[in-house]
Amino acid sequence: MRETKRRTVVKALIYRFFIVLTVWLMLVVMGQETDEALGVSIISNIGWTIGYYYYDRIWLRIKWGMKE
Prior knowledge:
Number of strands: 0
Oligomer: single chain
Structural class: mainly alpha
Largest sheet: none
Radius of gyration: 15 Å
Shape: elongated
Order of helices and strands: HH
Number of helices: 2
């Protein structure tokens, strides 16, 4: 069974959406302004989303731990 690139992108975007929310919440709780915290959360997570996409695609090529 293979995973499509579209599925990988959707998984990454949903995962990163939750991360943006949690980072934003942590920054607001720590005293940062709401708008500033949102900007930091979004900008940092763009890079992490791209990294996650490639990380996941590399793991799909590794056969270790996969069953037919």
